[in-house]
Amino acid sequence: MAAAENPLPRVLPEIRREDSRGLVLKHAANELVFAVVGHVGCGTSEIAESLRDSLEEETLPGGAFKVQILKAREVINDWARENGETLPDESKKSLGTTIQFQDLGDKMRSRPTADGESDYPAVARRLILKIRECRAASLGKKVESPDPVLPDGTRRAYILDSLRH
After folding, report:
1. What is the DSSP letter of 85?
2. Residues 34-85 pLDDT 10s
3. Is the whole-model pTM more than 0.85?
4. pLDDT at 16
């Protein structure tokens, strides 16, 4: 009994220009995203700063990263201003201030989306937009355009501080 003919065309070695590793590396962004999470008062900001310091080391294999720490509190603050919400007094670094920011984050996520569901990833989505803004600024581009701001291959790292939901 003869073997069935393979209907898939063969890729001839002389036609193939890159190996699979080359294809993947060609699309590598050289960007890392870290999310630091933890309970209130456990030191997520200190961890984020320590991670930043490690990633900025020139002795790192492949070289240092350009690092940005993006705080969830900042995007919640921006949202609250845009929506006329009362902001906590940030001059008083207290547990009460943190709780007020958590409540604002909950309110932000509870806003209904177009399909009527709660917008659970609202804070994360705004942090992603912040990454886009940071990338655009480092490339000297404007973010008004709906077009993607593509990475340029520079080693960058974004640390999302206190992303809890």
Report:
1. P
2. 999 988 778 899 999 999 999 999 999 999 999 999 999 999 999 999 999 9
3. no
4. 56
Please give the structure tokens belonging to residue 107: 């309110």
Q: Residue 126, SS3?
A: helix
Angle between helices 122-139 and 72-82 (to 10 degrees): 100
Distances (CA, A) of 148 to 6, 28, 127, 134, 164: 41, 16, 15, 13, 26
pLDDT in tens, 94-123: 888 888 989 999 999 999 888 999 999 999
Collapsing DSSP to helix, strand or coil, 66 comes out as strand
Per DSSP, the three-state class of 36 is: strand
Q: Are strands 31-36 and 66-71 parallel, antiparallel or unpaired?
A: unpaired
Token readout for 32 is 């890392």
Cα gap 41→50, rounded to integer Å: 16
- DSSP SS3 for 17: coil
What gap in Å lies between CA 73 and CA 104, rounded to an integer? 9
